[in-house]
Each structure stands twice: as C-alpha cells, then as structure tokens.
Design goal:
Elements lengths: L1 H38 L12 H57 L5 H32 L7 E4 H11 L1 H6 L3 E6 L4 E4 L1 H18 L3 E8 L3 E8 L17 E3 L4 E2 L1 H13 L3 E7 L2 E8 L4
Parallel strand pairs: 2-4
Antiparallel strand pairs: 1-3, 4-5, 5-9, 6-7, 8-9
Helix pairs in contact: 2-3, 3-7, 4-6, 6-7
Length: 296
C-alpha cells in the first residue's frame, strides 16, 4: 500500500512539474508575441519543450505570422503602386487641361461676339472646376495612402484664419463675394499649422463654389476650438448634412454639384489632428464646423 502511495505521489509530482513546464512555455510564447508587437520584430516563435500539441500550436502561429507578414509587404507594394498610379493619372489629366487653358487664353485675344464671350466664360468656369477636382483627387488619394506626418504645436488659430482669408480677397472680389469674420477672443489650438491652412483653404473654396453673397466665418470656443464657415445654399436636404463629407457625394444630382473631395479632405485632416467635423443645414444655410483640440 505504501508503495502505491509513493508511486502516486511521484506521478503527481511529475505531472505537476510537467504542467508547470507547459505553463512556462505558454508564458514564453506570449512573451515572444508581445515582443513582436512592441518592438515590431519579425522573429518567429520558438519553443524548447517537446510536446506534440504545443509544437503544432507553435508551428501554426509561425505559419499565421508568415502569412500576415507577406500580406503586409504585399499591401505596402500595392500602396506604392497606387500612389504612383495617382501621380501618373494626375499628370495625364493636367497636361491636356493646361492645353485647354492655353487655347482659352488665345481665344480671349480674338475679337469675339457677346455670345462667344459668354460661352468662353462658361468653358473657363468648367475648366476651373475640373482643375480643382483633379487637385483634390490627387490630394485625397495621397492623404489616404501615405503615413501622416503631423507636427502638433501651439498655434494661433485667429492668425492662421486671417492669413488665409486675406489671400482669397482678390478672388472673392472677382466673384462678387464678401466675408464677415467674427472672433471674440484669441484662440490657441494644438495642431499642425500646415494642415490647418489646408483645411481653411478647402472651406473657403467650398463656399466660393456653392454660394452667392456673404460668407460668415466664426471662431468659437466650446469643449474644443470651432472654425465655422456659414453660407446660403439651395435645394440641399437637411438629412444630407453629414453626407457632405463623403467622397464624391453629389447633393444636386441634376447639376452635378458636389461637396465632394474638398470636404472629405477637411474631415480627414481634422481627424488626423484629433479633431472632428460637422455640417448643419437650417433654413437654406449651410454651417460647416471643424473642431480642433485647444492648447491647454
């Protein structure tokens, strides 16, 4: 009886040691996986304990990691090809567009009738819209496929908005538009100056493209800093507010008017800096709001 008890004790002791070794090995596997994530290494998982099930588990983990790595590398190669394709398409589109604008300039030097002048102005307007669309297409494609390089710093929002608005004054006068800026205090945000300028530029261009009359620009402080661009719009359903930030969204299908890529870029840039966007439509007035983190 004593011998049986001793044998059982020995078996239990061996099993405890064996289970402990298995747990130790599982712990090592977890540590290796955590190291791969933390240090972004590509080292395969290795084991020392001879156990059929753990060997099979480790082999499957390594196979999965290898597949995942191949997919990652394939994705990098495809992203690179896609960016190159976008650059080539943009260049291919700009070349004939430049020729079109050149011919339009030559036509202006000729003696034209009032009807011909009217038609030429319409052609120039469509050419300008096409040029903006090509630029936005290139910019959006690049931003969505490139690693964002963001330099967040203390930024005076009032100064940036003022600088951007001043550069558009000649263009606004040409379009018989005016801007009314409302700001009650100095506002500092934690943001990338270049990205904020691109946001403001796109907001101004969107207003110029879709309104007539006064563009109201307001700088507000709520939980975050708010840049508000408000202008009159027509035939835009209230339910379409947030859809304005979708790629290629067309609010006026009959005329092909699009909030489109310009506002999609605004949303993308704002989110990259920890901000957000909002579109409010009330009584034929569109209020585009961009929220950015305050510098605290």
């Amino acid at each position: 009886m004593k011998i049986v008890v001793v044998v059982l004790i020995v078996i239990i002791f061996v099993l405890v040691i064996y289970i402990g070794l298995i747990q130790l090995q599982v712990r090592k596997i977890n540590m290796q996986l955590e190291k791969r994530l933390r240090e972004n290494t590509r080292q395969p998982v290795s084991i020392e304990l001879i156990n059929k099930d753990i060997n099979r588990l480790t082999a499957n983990i390594n196979k999965y990691l290898k597949v995942e790595e191949n997919l990652r590398l394939k994705g990098i190669r495809e992203d690179k090809k896609f960016r190159e394709l976008i650059v080539n398409i943009s260049h291919d589109l700009r070349t004939p567009l430049t020729a079109i604008k050149g011919y339009q300039q030559l036509m202006k030097r000729e003696e034209l009738s009032q009807e011909q002048i009217k038609r030429l102005k319409i052609a120039e307007k469509h050419t300008e819209d096409l040029e903006n669309l090509i630029q936005h297409f290139f910019e959006y494609s690049y931003l969505t496929n490139a690693e964002p390089q963001i330099d967040l710093e203390r930024t005076n929002l009032n100064s940036l908005v003022g600088e951007c608005l001043v550069t558009f004054i000649p263009y606004l006068e040409e379009k018989n538009l005016s801007i009314r800026l409302t700001e009650s205090q100095s506002i500092f945000v934690l943001a990338d100056k270049h990205l904020v300028k691109r946001i403001i530029k796109n907001l101004i261009q969107n207003c110029i493209q879709h309104t007539k009359g006064v563009i109201e620009v307001s700088l507000l402080v709520e939980d975050n800093a708010i840049i508000s661009f408000k202008n009159l719009v027509r035939d835009l359903p209230h339910s379409d507010g947030e859809r304005l930030f979708e790629r290629f969204y067309t609010g006026d299908k009959a005329r092909g008017k699009s909030g489109g890529l310009g506002l999609a870029i605004v949303k993308l840039l704002a989110e990259q800096m920890g901000g957000s966007t909002q579109a409010i439509i009330e009584d034929d007035t569109l209020d585009i709001r961009v929220s950015l983190p305050l510098y605290r």
